[in-house]
Write a structure and sequence with these properties.
It is a single chain. This protein has 2 domains: 82 residues, Orthogonal Bundle (Arc Repressor Mutant, subunit A); 83 residues, Nonspecific Lipid-transfer Protein, Chain A (2-Layer Sandwich), CATH 3.30.1050. It is 42% helix and 17% strand. The chain has 9 helices and 7 strands. It has a 5-stranded mixed beta sheet with strand order 5-4-3-6-7, with helices on one face. It has a two-stranded antiparallel ribbon with strand order 1-2. Helix 7 packs parallel to helix 8.
Amino acid sequence: MRSYKQFCGVAKALDVVGERWTLLLVRELLLGPRRYSDLLSALKGLTTNLLADRLRRMTAEGLIERVTLPAPSGARVYQLTARGRELEAVVLALGAFGASYLTEPGGDAVNLRWAALSLKRRWNGTGEGTMVLRAPTRSFTIVLGAPLLVMDGELPADVVLTGEEPELLAALFGADSVTVDGDAAVWKAFRDGLR
């Protein structure tokens, strides 16, 4: 690993997380554990050799760990350690900085997981309740509060938004494009709390 060889917190942080793909791997793990194949699929352009290298380095730095999910899954997954979760504020701050550069996706990949994570930085509300975003192949639970909690999977919810991923993405940015079932006050509190 290359080092800036500077006695500076910023330089030392970049020694650990400044390599290409590292912070995007952190982003992928912020909502919950992921399989190797899930990470490879989510990050188009990342080769399997480079992914293996980044995961090895991130494990050695104490940012991630490999664990086996409980039965019935039993899948081997990567998850953030407590040290790795400290990078959430960094990733959200970079997202806030980069949001001003987002115009139209053009040829860029679009992903409901990334949009769900962005809710954590966009939330400025005071409402309470639980929501589920349900797409055909994945779902996310959002717990309103301070801070907003966003995670993979479904928990019992006051509101369920159901639709295709593009429709759910549009709904997260203000469109009325999905089926909303449940407590209208929770849905309104969620939308009012987004900036």
